[in-house]
Amino acid sequence: MRSPRLLLVLVVAALTLPAQPAARAAPGSAVATALWAWPAAGAGPSAGPQVTRPFQPPPTPYAAGHRGVDLAGVPGQPVLAAGAGTVAFAGMVAGRPVVSVDHADGLRTTYEPVQPAVAAGQQVSRGSPLGVLLAGHDGCPAAACLHWGLRRGETYLDPLSLLRPPRVRLLPWH
Questions:
Q1: pTM of this prediction?
Q2: Is the residue at 4 inside a domain?
Q3: Total tally of structural domains belonging to the chain
Q4: DSSP states of the chain as a string?
């Protein structure tokens, strides 16, 4: 019977082939989940802050939408890098202080309103302080809200997808 022999070959191949590098993992994959963390403290050690406004992608590239999530916080609270990368920008955009971090696979996270403690070109690891949260985000129901954004190239993505556990699907054995 060929099935046991095929299974043996697959097991040997899986054990001897090198693992795929973590940097190539897509958001939401098991490897990616271990690489990302909340950019602000929450209610418990593994819990994130309350989401006060969810991601609402626009129907077209130039239409209205909410291109990130708003997270409840307090003024002066540390804002942390969600993942390892390089600070792409730290300064003012349209009168608001913003920090952007470039990550592997063309991902970029943005954080605002944040008084930067980093500079463009600086390497950061997951959990590194980027600055402190400021009050003044429009529509925020808390003392302060962090607007956390994610995009790949020009496409905006839900930053919460970085934190979701992977979906495991079992396929039938024929």
A1: 0.75
A2: no
A3: 1
A4: -HHHHHHHHHHHHHHHSPPPPGGGPPTTSHHHHHH---SS--SSSS--PPEEE--B--SSTTS--B-SEEEEE-TT-EEE-SSSEEEEEEEEETTEEEEEEE-GGGEEEEEESEEESS-TT-EE-TT-EEEEE-S--TT-SSSEEEEEEEEETTEEE-GGGGTSPPPP-PPPP-
